[in-house]
Amino acid sequence: MSPTPRSLISRPGPTALWRAVLAAGVLCAIGLLPWLARTDPALTVLKARSADRDPTPEALAAVRDRLGLDAGPLRLLGRWLGDLAHGDAGHSWISGSAVLPSVVQALGVSLLLMAVALTAALGTAALVCARTLWRGAAGRPTGSRTGGVAATLASLPEFLTASVLATVVGVQLGWLPALGWYGPQWLVLPALALGVPAGALLGRLLGDALPGAFAEPWALAASARGLPGRRIARQALRRSFPGLLPNLGLFVVGLTGGSVAVEQIFDIPGLGRLTLQAAIAQDLPVLQAGTLALLLLAAVAGGAARGTARLLLGPVLRDGALASPHRPGPPARSPLPFAYGAVLLGVVVAGLPRDPLALDTAARLRPPSWAHPFGTDALGRDLLARVGHGALTTLALALAVSAAALLTGVVLGLVPRVSGAAVDTVNAVPPVLAGLLVAGVAGSGPYTPALAVAAVAWAPLAAHAGALLTQERATAHLAATRALGAGPLYLLRHELLPAVLPPVTRHALLRLPGVALALASLGFLGLGAQPPSPEWGLLLAENLPYAERAPWAVLAPAAVLALLGALAVSAAGGVRLPGRRPRRGRPARRRSRQQPRHPSRHPSRQPSRQPEPAAPAHGTAAPGSAR
Amino acid sequence: MRSVRPRRWAACLLLTPLLTGTLSGCFAPADSSDPKADSTGGKRLRIALAFPPSESFSPYGADATLLSRLGVTEGLTKLDGNGAPAPALAESWTQEDARTWQFTLRDARFQDGTPLTGAAAATALTRAAQASPAPAALSGVSLTAEASGERRVRVTTATPDPALPLRLAGPSLAVLSPKAYGKQGAADPVGHATGPFTLTKVDGSTSAALDRFDDYWGGRAQAPGIDARFIADGTARANALRTGEEDVAEALPFAQAASLAKGTGREVPTARTTSLYLNTASGPFADPELRAAARAAIDTSVLAENVYEGYADPGQGIFGPALTWAAGKRQQPTGRASAAQPHGATVRLATYDNRPELPEVAQVLQQQLEKAGFKVTLTVRESSRVEGDALAGKFDAFIGARNTMLDTGDPVSVLASDYTCDGTYNMARLCDKNVDKAVAAADALADQDKRRDAAMAAEARILGTDAVVPLVHQRNILGVSTTVSGVLLDPYERTVVATGTRR
């Protein structure tokens, strides 16, 4: 009946080729890194071997000679690739030991940590959307109201959760070992530190999609037929999960290669630390092997995510027979965004008249008082002033980067076949390496850190947008619209984008605090904000060593960041222009034929008047409904 | 359909023990040793070290210090508390002529059982001299060694080197058994050194296990062994000490000192001086009067008391109070310019963040300099990404923490490398005839006392140029559990454990 929409089932050949080209590109870029960054690898290697060693010309020449650096990047890269074909990933430039065993060992550690962290994340996600599920199962679906807590959790930087867990649970309470990697009980704290923020983000995304699933016709029909709520909830989960899977796949890779802070704090010999050290020291063989491992993992995880999505959605994708997952209606207007906004604004306004740079070392680490409502930092500076003054630069830059990432993400999400491999590749590149590469290409100008963060921040958004689009393209109403003669541009403007933009925008906003932190985390490469700037990420980093003695010094920036997350998410509930309620206020004539989900958009349930049969309790989400 | 699921779950449950069995391979091996007392009553020491071995315990780089700190390797000489060369593997030595020294070895054995002979010592020194890059203690020195008897070794340098016995105390010139040296220039210290402890197992950059060496010439160590862990994060090291997982934790951050239990934080004065280097070749500080203005503007006691929380002494000179001999010899800086008004001169100040206190120091200095009328912009990067630029003169001022004893323990060598025209680490880009002359004069002296006098005279000359402003002399915090006794507090950062260390 309808033309077969593009399905997830893409031809494997070209995709694999494209993926290989991207991976080769990344490896080549790493091979060229020192020459791009114009930083002598002999110097960084020498310094990594011995921090106190003077970089005398003789010592540098000896290192250069030993490593054969004079052969030039291309020859080095060629040699490395040639050896790789024989299963030899070379020798570390720093230690001289074989790379492969150390990378494999670190990868094993990181994979185990990731697996447990992912379990913690799924647990957190379950807790976050438990209420939505409960209410949906009970037949009272709500708008997505999981905002505040989840967004707050999601905006917690993992280095903060890690050091708080290590200090409080590990040291002060002594319940679990605070550091090391010797057995299962050593896994708990790091996995929680990594898993809780990730799980909050996933839970928030899931909570975003669930109400739409509950409002679909099959759910109504199933409920009307008297099926138990539990089963409906299970199917709703199954219906919402595929949109999330690509992001889950990204987390798998991100947690494996990017949990540097947690590995540092808990002293875990994982891949994140290995690649970070290699990136700083420009130890190219280790960096190449580590990144290659992550790229392979990304390909596997991405493939698994796509495969699972296909398994869960089944033939509906092929047949273009999906009911459209849309939220039941605008979320109840809540005063929360205004409250969050007012508090944030109040803090900024109260901080602005104060001096954020005035040092008074005699008044260091003072607890909050009338004179210093947020206390003082390690150099006796007023924290309220610093938080207030840092707001503008932090927010402006983070918003700009998020907007750019959103735009790129959605545009690339439209062409999943091109962007799928790119997303996996970009996500697998360790963040510091991305920073170094971007800095190498773009120079260390004032906008380099923003570029570097934007260069990776689009990936999860593109993955999300791509997954939603694939589903949206497989919906029955789209097929009908197309049958009525709508062109691709019309479809894009009036059907696809309006369906995809709101959830992806909310996702982008959810990641806003993370972007702010990422911007500050490149500072040690000489990119981005430098002390004494009161940029929020920098505030957190510089006060972290004092977290135990002066918790307020960390609490203030962490709290405003969490507030920002909560504000962004709660306000995004209404990413609708005033006076225009998308979909609901559409001219009925265009919709009249494919309006099966009309009743579903009402929060209260009504007896189904739809032509379709109810969804079977198991099997595809909305099988064959268009026929 | 329904009956399938429970069975699937059951299968998963059956798989669990299998999986956990495989997973256990993913963890780092736990300390295999029995923590309980052994027959002699001692317990193994558990030490958290800050720097992992970066070159798989190659004795020629930074790992040499690690080996020396763990009591694995020894050189012909060592430094005594006063910084003078003292007998170690060499019982005594004599200078035969300006370039030749004769060392008489003591009756000792390597950990692999072979006896220490003149030939073995000569091999060790020759291999060190041939290492590439050359050990820092030998930079600029060309050395040959030959056995001159069963227990004698003769060392000859290309040019006269009065500081040779000091040099040979450097950890990278440790003497290893001939069996330690492979074909490709690498040396393997595992089981081939002479110290009271011998490496038995190295687990990458995570941990190392050591056993007591029973035939140690200085007597058997009281602790039966050492379990060393390399924990890069300072807070994590402090946590390890606080939870009782470790007995000794080195280089604790100042920020963590306050949270340690009473009596566990030991202060070790070090030869490390944090200084402000002013670029004398270009920029505003090419003007000696502005350098004087900067020096006058800086209050170092604030840094010592507040940033270093009292774990440092205000800057007195290039050589600090940890070098006990320096105190009585200090001379007043001469030839200082008088301070001029900066009139808003812009200063680019740089430092690195590998030591977390340095960015704080930089921010305090920024404020002090701005109060005096300078305008200051700050750059903070990772050290290998800022040092090169600083040496190339891309900044007007640089803050660095410098070990003033380097690897040689000789005060003149740091002056030569840091403040002379040909210096390899001349952050201030100083090229001053008088300074060069004073350093050269000191370098020519063989007598230790006179050499030190001359070094202090050269220091006064250097301070007179205001090219460097010594900020603080840092103390390290060594975390030592109250149950442990006999830990060495070494200002030269070369030793931690010895035969008398026990818990």
Q: Can you put this structure into words, describing what you see?
A:
Chain B: This is ABC transporter substrate-binding protein. Chain B: Keywords: Signal. The complex is a heterodimer of chains A (627) and B (503). Chain A is an all-alpha fold and 627 residues long. Chain A has helices at 12-37, 41-49, 57-67, 73-85, 99-128, 130-137, 147-154, 158-172, 188-214, 217-224, 229-257, 260-266, 271-281, 284-313, 316-319, 336-351, 383-413, 416-428, 431-442, 448-473, 476-483, 488-510, 512-521, 536-543, 551-572, 588-591. The relative contact order of chain A is 0.13. By secondary structure, chain B is of the alpha+beta class. Chain B folds into 3 domains: 7-71 and 195-264, Periplasmic binding protein-like II (D-Maltodextrin-Binding Protein, domain 2); 77-180, Alpha-Beta Complex (Dipeptide-binding Protein, domain 1), CATH 3.90.76.10; 270-474, Dipeptide-binding Protein, Domain 3 (Dipeptide-binding Protein, domain 3, Roll). Helix content of chain B is 26%, strand content 22%. Chain B has helices spanning 4-23, 63-69, 118-130, 164-167, 234-242, 254-257, 288-297, 300-307, 357-371, 387-391, 411-419, 433-443, 448-465, and strands at 45-49, 77-79, 85-87, 90-97, 100-105, 143-149, 152-157, 197-203, 207-212, 225-230, 248-249, 265-278, 312-314, 346-352, 375-381, 397-403, 468-480. In chain B, strands 1, 8, 9, 10, 11, 12, 13, 14, 15, 16 and 17 form an 11-stranded mixed beta sheet that branches. In chain B, strands 4-5-7-6 form a 4-stranded antiparallel beta sheet, covered by helices on one side. In chain B, helix 11 (411-419) runs antiparallel to helix 12. Chain B is globular. At the A-B interface, helix 2, helix 3, helix 5, helix 8 and helix 12 of A face helix 5, helix 8, helix 9, strand 15 and helix 10 of B.
